[in-house]
Amino acid sequence: xxxxxxxLAVVCLGLAPAAAAPRLLLIPLKGGLxxxxxxxxxxxxxxxxxxxxxxxxxxxxxxxxxxxxxAAEVRKITDKPVTEVIDTNHDLDRAGGNAYFKSIGAKIxxxxxxxxxxxxxxEDSVKQTKALFPDYPDIxxxxxxxxFAGDFTLQDGAVRGFYLGPSHKPDDIFVWFPEEKxxxxxxxxxxxLGNMDGADLAEYPKTLQKLKDLNLGISxxxxxxxxxxHGPDLIxxxxxxxxxxxx
Length: 247
Ligand SMILES: [Zn+2]
Description:
The chain has 7 helices and 13 strands. The protein has 247 residues and is an alpha/beta fold. It has one domain: Ribonuclease Z/Hydroxyacylglutathione hydrolase-like (Metallo-beta-lactamase, Chain A), CATH 3.60.15. The chain has a 7-stranded mixed β-sheet with strand order 1-2-3-4-5-6-7. Strands 8-9-10-11-12-13 form a 6-stranded mixed β-sheet, with no helix packed on it. Strand 1 and strand 2 (33-38) form a beta hairpin. Helix 6 (204-213) packs antiparallel against helix 7. It starts with a helix and ends with a helix. Bound molecules: zinc ion (ZN). Residues 44, 91, 93, 187, 224-225 line the site of zinc ion.
């Protein structure tokens, strides 16, 4: 009886668990581009590019489980297969889902720098992430199998990965979508500084200045954490936050 009363109290107070909100959303952005908002662990945003005959995922998401959720969302918008996923750095929010993508036959793409750091630090990263997020699973570290010495293009030039120097980590790359004029900033560009462990404080602003000097004509930036979609002014905002952080 007391349990029924408690149940009624909970329902009347509106505290009953509502239908769980989806924790991974795929939202159309522009052209063939979609933003994946992944609310597991620390919110991260990845990007999906639907090309003429296959799909490129930018950011493998946190775990094989979140990667499977993302792949299920991709299947709702296209029949084209996911054939490649880019790890934009060696952190688990970008590389944790590699095992799933490999299991569906996708290539795991990165720079040599990212592959080497994931090989060296991946197992420790799992332990550190579990310390922060106790529900983070014991994931297998799967290394990139399609590795570039420097900058690279996919989807016949419609997806361009490039490196401008150390920033949030030694290896973070940007991904540029020239047709849509959209830049994926990954862990480098975001509306708050976030985790600065491993950031290169001297080089980070220089890397962002190099990005500005490219004059890409950016229309939108997708930030890798916090709110996803921003204007090109996000670069200056990040430079200003870094200058404050040093003081
Ligand atoms: Zn990150």
